[in-house]
């Protein structure tokens, strides 16, 4: 297909002479020039066009070229007649030449006046009209291009017109380099087909970007709300990450960044994101700016997004930046020392500012993974308007939810966003109780009164004096008339459907007294991050941290029964509230909604931004927990701050006399391994009321038997029992349990090594709690990475270890590696359980689980019997895993392992599908608490 016209192509027109010019006179608004497979002829003294092939082409150029350059909406009108219906195409050249997919196609059924409404971007070069797609005769007269008002269209960005409108905002042409396809059917014009889509970028008029400061701006709208684009600069060495500039963006919002170019540019590449999906690029501009403008942009972003600069003004950030180098003294030719020192300080400051500025554009993989989860999982799980409407129409007596918001000196923008998030709720049966705690800023009262005047569901009250958060929330409670209370901080936001999902849960569980949801944070750039996907009710985790937090919804009668919020625990008043509710709750009256319904505002100084943000909250939390524990442990338990801020530790009492622990250690040869385990227990354990029973399963090495005799002679607490049968881990331990003298059974591998001396006392203290079953320890590989931090049922098909291979010092997912918590199962490499519980559930399964999963099965039987299984980080041991047994690598072992998997899936299918100590929103294929799906 030809895309240009030549002198040769117009020869037939010149040969017609006056006849041609007479015809052109009729086309007073546009020139109609044939460029391919067209010939002008006369029939019965009338001018007709003849198509000589299947690709006839006209070039349309307005007599006044400025018409095209101004851009906008136009109507292309002309008279057309042919002997039968034809298909016509109009192409546009806006700097890239005519392209096959940039076309308006239309089917013309009848002869007569034709009109085609089109959008032409500023700078359009030419139009090409293909009048038909076959040989034949036709007449085409009086082509006119009329500027018109913006037409009424369903979506301003839809189709080819929308694409061309986007082109108008781009000074650069975008050539799809890889994994990109242009699609012009809907509002998004490009589709990426991989994780590395890329455009090659060139200026339409060949303008060169000079070395120096440069600003990049773009607006990209797509299927995903928050992503990261990347601009690559080639200075002659090709594209590389050395000269790659990430730019986080929000769909439909202007994104900008300044960079400093040291050399000339050879090529530019623009990667819109790193995923599959559809999008449109509404604007792209890359241009030089002066140094003053660049530094102003740098300072502005630092003040807005970098915590260390947020309390400064731009001028303070830039103090000293941009000074000229000191002049030399005329006398000795050296600079004044003071000026030189200042210059060096300024240079260092500039470097530090540039590094800080660059860091604000870095988005970690976890945040990107969460954005992907929002786009692909959360959005698809939200109810449609029709679903909500149908649900509301079916409610006979909808629950009224009172949202309590204590307010104090809140930033005006954040306060409005908070209130707007309630007003925007898809569930309309709510009331908003706002109480101002004597804020000194006058805008607070103005904002509250404004919203109260707009919506009768908004109630406001102004305290005459400052009483702090507990008193202020109690004032809000006194205003509430709803059966349920939702707690909202004055600078946070509710998800749009938060109250809808709460109402749905109340419908499902009308006896619910407490409902809590998952939550996330909104960073200083407005990006959702750090989702907290929570477990179902987990009282031991609650004793370690306030994981319930937000969104918390309580039955009003329950809160009134306990006397509302308690004064004196400000900073942890919500934690104190839920702890005081516990005596009045049953497992069936607590519901967890595994959806992100609450967005914390992560601002400087807030608990959401950093655990160190409010040190007083930990002290208040310790007091709240201490008061609660005192009522259930006869004052013998000790409550103290946990390993990290806003976490807690309860040291549970041990009965008197202290119970005897019978540690069962199956072994076979490998004397060095077993001796290390036994001696580390004997030498390091401060808790001394125990016996060690070595269960010898066929040891044949003389040195092993020598060790058995020696260790029994050294310490009377060690004994050896022979078990001369084929290896069956379950049977060996059941045999040992029959001979155990202690009231507590310890299942211990022969390849562990004690680290901290309090490990056994810690585990015994939990095992003695009457509602606790199994207790597990924190185990490390020899390289100080996590081997065991509790077992998550369902990982990998049956079960996997929490946080496997995480560094020893890591806090894990929301500090789960640092706190005591309930889990569904723990490994028998180091497990304590009361002998009565062991016998109650029938011990380990000797028949179906001889080697694998017997510990998981045992824990699930204990769980099924009504006990809780506990994991504690305060009992630490090394686990030199499976050194003495060998690999599962021969056909017989593989077959046995597969049989054990089948048994577990049949016996425990329900909990494998959903482990209550884990979230359905987290991965089921990895052991790292990463985001998965639902």
From TrEMBL:
Superkingdom to which the source organism belongs = Bacteria
What is the organism of origin for this protein?
Halomonas sp. H10-59
Region described as Disordered: 322-343
Q: Where is the composition biased (Basic and acidic residues)?
A: 333-343
**Descriptive protein name:** Glycosyltransferase family 2 protein
What the entry lists under PANTHER family is as follows: RHAMNOSYLTRANSFERASE WBBL
InterPro entries reported in the protein's UniProt record:
Glyco_trans_2-like, Nucleotide-diphossugar_trans
Gene3D superfamilies associated with the record: Spore Coat Polysaccharide Biosynthesis Protein SpsA, Chain A (3.90.550.10)
Q: Which residues form the Glycosyltransferase 2-like domain?
A: 402-562, 662-840
